[in-house]
Amino acid sequence: MRSVTKVIYKPDSQSTEEYTVIVDPSEFQKWKAGDTTIPLTEVVDSFNIYHSAQGSQGLLNTPSNQQLDTVFGTHKDIDVVTKILKEGREQRGEMDENWADTNIGCAQIAYCGPDCQKRDWKTHKRSCGETDRIELGSFYPLIAFIMELQRNDPFKPSHRALGHQIVNSPNPWDEESVHRRIGGPQLFQTKSDRSFVVDSNPMLPSIISVLFALMAEMYTTTSTVNPSDGAKRRARLSYYGSPIADFGIAKGQANVKHQDHFTYLFLSHGMAFEKGQDPNDHYWIYFTTVGGQDVVLDCGLFVFNHPIFVVPFPHYAKYIPSSWPGITTLGVPAYFPPREAIKRGVLPRVHDERQRFSVLRDEGLKEAIRFSHDGFRPTDEEAITNFMERVAGRACEEIEEAIAIKWCEEACEVVGKNLQNREYLNYPKTDEVGHAVSEDPGDREQSALVPANELDEGWMKCLKKWNGKHRRGDINEQQLREALQSYKEKDQRRKRQ
């Protein structure tokens, strides 16, 4: 067993939390003596915080290169860079303003600025390895896509409203009525309201599954010096060049107008009322960059009449099992705020966050990923369900636990195949990802469900063209909607011919 140095750090004198850091003695001595590089690959503990003896160097909190136990030949390393808290040096004016953009190369070593990085490059380049940086703006449609497929999973219990017996006409005619049919005959359940009901999905198991898959499949990938020789290659998410340091579940309230709340009336059950999905118990995904910027992704707002979609290009559907249900051609619900709108501060207030729960840093989930390919052990399933109950703040029902386990396994398969085959290289760039905004959310139901691998290429090209014009400011939002609607109408006429 090699010699190590143990460092115990408390954030402040009042804190009840202590962090144990285990580092290589020689590296700790160099760092303590003022060396400007911190070799993250030397860290062997799961949660590691480097802190100077004087408390002036800031602190780096990272589960870097964690060596998990080898069990039945399964061995995975967790290797990420997390947020730098720049309190000490920033106050003295010593922290480089552009640190987040200049000091991360392969995400294996941290520097205080570009000069430090240049000085260390001759030494570091021999072991640098290569990292595929996947832009979050290009990758998030895959997350939204998986969550949409989960909404249509027949294993998930159907909403009561979808199986409710119609006991009378919703619009009875009296003798004085003028009988004039508007539109074709269509059962009300196939109209727009059905979309809202279908989207009343158990959000928590769905979010946990996609984030678990990210941790298990992406943040365990490693790299060697010569990946071109057939060696492994690591992949990591980034946001406009800044590595994603943490991700997890945010819990709080979705700001929803009263008229967008759903309530169900069951006449056959003695005029029983049932509330729809509660906006005060809402969950969404957060990502935090190494520079400390938070980015949100919410795929559960459509049920609250928030009709913003992302278009799942065929590349995202390539490794979806054929047994999975279909999707709509228009798009899948996803609220991912544009960077420019975030910087200008012009976004509406969509969420009120109360709590957040890191998935990447959760010790129990990190234990569970060891068997994500071979089938979960009972202890792994317990770790997933315990985490879900901690986030929910209540005991979860058996069906919630069952679908969480099922969806974790399936999401790992999809994300894993995309990474193994480097399909992300074919994803559209962030500014080419297609979006759709509809004044009538029922538009999403106007086209029949199609297999996930048979998405309409013409629709994709149309979205790319008109979204590009909208981003450049050539057209406004209303003109974008009209252009997309015009294409849909022409396409429907063509198909009827």
UniProtKB/TrEMBL annotation:
Residues 4-96 form the Ribosome maturation protein SDO1/SBDS N-terminal domain. InterPro entries: Ribosome_mat_SBDS_N_sf, SDO1/SBDS_N, Znf_MYND. Residues 105-128 form the MYND-type domain. Keywords: Metal-binding, Zinc, Zinc-finger. The keyword Metal-binding applies. GO terms for molecular function: zinc ion binding. Pfam families: SBDS_N, zf-MYND. Residues 474-497 are annotated as: Disordered. Gene3D superfamilies: 6.10.140.2220, Ribosome maturation protein SBDS, N-terminal domain (3.30.1250.10). The keyword Zinc applies. Residues 487-497 have a biased composition (Basic and acidic residues). SUPFAM superfamilies: FYSH domain (SSF89895), HIT/MYND zinc finger-like (SSF144232). It comes from the Eukaryota. Transmembrane segments: none annotated. This is DUF1960-domain-containing protein. It comes from Candolleomyces eurysporus.
